[in-house]
Automatic annotation (TrEMBL):
Residues 712-777 form the HTH luxR-type domain. InterPro entries: AAA_22, HTH_77, P-loop_NTPase, Sig_transdc_resp-reg_C-effctor, TPR-like_helical_dom_sf, Tscrpt_reg_LuxR_C, WH-like_DNA-bd_sf. This is LuxR C-terminal-related transcriptional regulator. Coiled coil: none annotated. It holds the Pfam family AAA_22. It comes from the Bacteria. SMART domains: HTH_LUXR. It comes from Saccharopolyspora ipomoeae.
Length: 787
């Protein structure tokens, strides 16, 4: 993703999660929260688990996002188990960043200080001190930023307002209204909505209305409790359910008088849900609670499936059916997730069973083995699939690292896990997180482990990527001593390669050629393909940027051929980019353009953000040579945003930095400062997908404008058939009531569709919808008019 909040705002409404279930009630809380933002810059939604804080925050953010130039942005903190990662989570999920890794807070402030945006920080209670420090800095230095937090307690920062999210409105069991009036209570509306999802034929009748209202009273209006109870209608009548929950609540709250009533109710219902399960499902629930974020069936079977007669597939089906596990599907892959409250409950049960250590160890072993397979299979045809797989498992990989780093007997596992993932960290631009884990693992593991040399070497590489040569060199020296003592020829070859790259970074070409050439011979002798490809790329680039362009191009061609033979994308893309660099030095801009565009296509497939930053920069230079100055300025803007996102900078590579600065100054002179700044900022504001399309000069749709206007980022038809039908009626000047009567649907349904249309098209008025419809009818093809 492009690195600033504003960068994606031009293409979307931010990164707010979709609420896949219908939203019921909470009008008062929404209004109150919005009103508080008129007086306060920080509003925290507090309340117990299951009360609906996250869903309320998302709804408020969706309602308010148009009030902010840079829209609303969402950061999920639930799966962090280390407050030190809060800043990295914010940087990654907002795609912020900057070259400095030592001052991440300063980086966030620098990126957001000129933004006008609503920042949602979700599930803060377990890392509240680190969140409070972040929010305090934002309030001091970022005047256009507003923060909406969800937490079981307030943040405690200056100027904070809190909204206690109450239970939903419930009927008074002693004064029940008639059946036709039951849906005046938001808790009843929610129950009915979820009941119909579980049992489509469910209806409120005179016979069951009383039981329904008493049941919602017993559930104390807690949304999670209501959803857990509603699914029980698959096996019980409403009257049976009401009787059992009333009895259960009275029994289970006897010993918990010190807890708030709504917490007693939710705990009672979760207890009841747990005890209704058979032993297989109970055990599976407890064991699957060690997962962080989502997980797939294979992981569940390995981690939770140990033991005679444990059928995890059947247990998963059962727990999904009972709304304990949430099912998610993305791109044909099904994954599962435990809601936060149910995960905490499962962890407590796991401790009661005395299985916490054993199951966490299996979890760690599973993901360590996954990382080992990734490292072993990286040079091959599945690189893009591997990156996607590890993105899904990132929270679980962090949890496994945490467990391994803290264990006295798992130091070797921790070192192998963190080093096996180094290619993934680099591709995702998570350089600072990689350094965090490497430093932590190196600090907490024995110094005699054989994996230590590799970890020191990789830690040095990430320091180099972020321009910290002073921190890289001592690590390289220690790694060299360890590898020499152990006689590890492969590790010594990698260290020789890195020393050669350090020389190149420092503009010492001769030393760089000698050392990288020596490393290449070692890798060939030991038949290490990954090292050979890296060395071919590095040596070709160093020679080609020096006085041996022909020799450099031959080496790069060899790297491209070898990587193509193995269906490898990563080093092939870098070799194509390096070829473009050499061709630029020979004044062959057309050949350079073909090479770097091929590099960019491969890097997009891998989502290699550091590689994309290099390629966008180089394409800007080529556009400059072609005297396409506006395009050159915009491409420099896109690359600048991406350099920030991966927390790196052209200045970290001495030979590259000089060319970058020279081109930038000459483009600025050609356009003039004002025009340059305008196009540069427009480039920074592009989304990543739009930026790559623009760089490759790909038109998403046939347009009447020229290729130079590709930055308008046209999307496919964003509306469903029903939404398009309603948009057409809006364009005719029809009211929501007229539309409802015309289509024979509820007026509330029309209102929901109109809101969805406004959200999808990023509009604020019905007049804009009418303008969009007119544009579609005239064949303009634009998804939105100029605003």
């Amino acid at each position: 993703m492009v690195s600033t909040a504003n960068a994606r705002a031009g293409e979307s409404a931010g990164n707010l999660p979709a609420d896949v279930t219908s939203f019921v009630g909470r009008r008062r809380e929404i209004t109150l929260t919005k009103r508080l933002f008129a007086e306060a810059r920080v509003v925290t939604l507090t309340g117990p688990g299951g009360v609906g804080k996250t869903r309320l925050a998302v709804r408020v953010a969706n309602n308010m996002r148009r009030s902010f130039r840079d829209k609303a942005w969402f950061v999920e903190l639930e799966n962090l188990d280390d407050g030190a990662l809060v800043l990295d989570a914010v940087i990654e999920q907002l795609s912020l960043g900057g070259p400095s890794s030592a001052a991440s807070l300063e980086t966030i402030v620098d990126q957001l200080k000129n933004r006008e945006m609503l920042l949602v920080l979700d599930n803060c209670e377990h890392v509240i001190e680190d969140v409070a420090l972040l929010v305090d800095a934002l309030m001091r230095w970022c005047p256009g930023v507003r923060v909406l937090a969800t937490s079981r307690q307030s943040l405690g920062v200056a100027g904070e307002s809190t909204v206690v999210v109450p239970p939903m409105q419930v009927p008074d069991p002693d004064h029940l209204p008639p059946a036709e009036a039951v849906e005046q209570f938001s808790s009843v509306r929610l129950f009915v909505d979820r009941a119909k999802a579980a049992v489509p034929e469910f209806e409120v009748t005179e016979d069951n209305a009383g039981a329904l209202m008493r049941l919602c009273h017993h559930l104390d209006g807690n949304p999670l409790a209501i959803e857990l109870a509603a699914v029980r209608l698959r096996s019980l009548s409403l009257q049976q359910l009401e009787e059992r929950i009333a009895e259960r609540y009275d029994l289970l709250t006897e010993g918990r008088r010190g807890a708030p009533p709504r917490q007693q109710t939710l705990r009672a219902l979760i207890d009841w849900s747990y005890e209704l399960l058979d032993e297989r499902d109970r055990r599976a629930w407890a064991r699957m609670s060690v997962f962080s974020g989502s997980f797939d069936l294979a992981a569940a079977e390995h981690v939770a499936g140990e033991g005679k007669g444990v059928d995890i597939l059947t247990a998963v089906h059962s727990l999904v059916d009972k709304s304990v596990l949430m099912r998610e599907e993305d791109g044909g892959e099904v994954r599962y997730r435990l809601p936060h409250t149910l995960r905490d409950y499962g962890l407590a049960k796991l401790a009661d069973h005395g299985e916490t250590g054993k199951v966490r160890h299996r979890h760690c072993a599973f993901f360590a083995e996954l990382a080992e397979r990734f490292a072993a299979e990286w040079i091959g045809p599945e690189q893009a699939a591997w990156v996607q797989r590890l993105r899904h498992e990132q929270d679980n990989l962090r949890a496994a690292l945490r467990y391994a780093a803290e264990g006295s007997e798992t130091g070797g596992t921790a070192l192998r896990l963190v080093t096996d993932l180094w290619q993934y960290w680099g591709i995702r631009g998570l350089n600072t997180e990689a350094r965090h884990w490497l430093d932590e693992v190196l600090d907490h593991t024995p110094r005699d482990l054989p994996e230590r040399a590799r970890a020191l070497r990789i830690s040095a590489w990430f320091s180099l990527l972020q321009g910290h040569l002073d921190k890289a060199m001592p690590k390289l020296e220690r790694a060299t001593v360890l590898a020499t003592q152990r006689g590890d020829e492969v590790e010594r070859a990698y260290l020789t390669l890195l020393h050669g790259l350090v020389a190149f970074f420092q503009d010492d070409q001769r030393r760089g050629v000698d050392l990288v050439g020596e490393a290449l011979e070692k890798f060939r002798r030991t038949e290490v393909l990954a090292g050979e490809l890296w060395s071919l790329h590095a040596l070709g680039l160093i020679k080609g940027m020096g006085d041996d362009a022909d020799g450099g191009l031959r080496l790069l061609a060899e790297c491209i051929q070898l990587s193509t033979e193995h269906s490898e994308l990563y080093w092939r893309s870098y070799a194509q980019w390096a070829t473009a660099q050499v061709q630029m030095r020979r004044d062959r801009a057309d050949r350079a353009e073909n090479s770097v565009k091929e590099a960019l296509r491969l890097q997009r497939e891998l989502d290699n953000r550091l590689g994309i930053a290099f390629s966008l920069d180089t394409l800007a230079w080529i556009a400059h040579r072609q005297q396409r100055f506006e395009r050159a300025a915009r491409l420099l803007g896109t690359s600048s945003a991406l350099w920030d996102a991966v927390r790196s900078a052209p200045g970290f590579w001495a030979r590259f930095a000089g060319d970058h600065d020279q081109h930038l100054m000459q483009i600025r002179t050609a356009l003039g400062p004002e025009a340059f700044d305008e196009h540069y900022e427009r480039g920074r504001e592009m989304s990543l997908g739009h930026a790559v399309d623009y760089a490759l000069e790909i038109k998403r749709h046939s347009r009447r404008s020229t290729a130079e206007s590709a930055e308008d980022n046209v999307h496919p038809m964003p509306l469903t058939r029903r939404e398009r039908q309603i948009a057409d009626l809006v364009a005719e000047g029809r009211t929501n009531k007229d539309i409802a009567e015309n289509l024979v649907i509820a007026q509330r349904t029309v209102e929901g569709h109109v809101q969805n249309i406004l959200t999808k098209l990023d509009f604020t008025s019905r007049a804009q919808i009418a303008g969009w419809v007119a544009g579609q009818r005239s064949g303009d093809g634009a998804d939105s008019p100029a605003l």
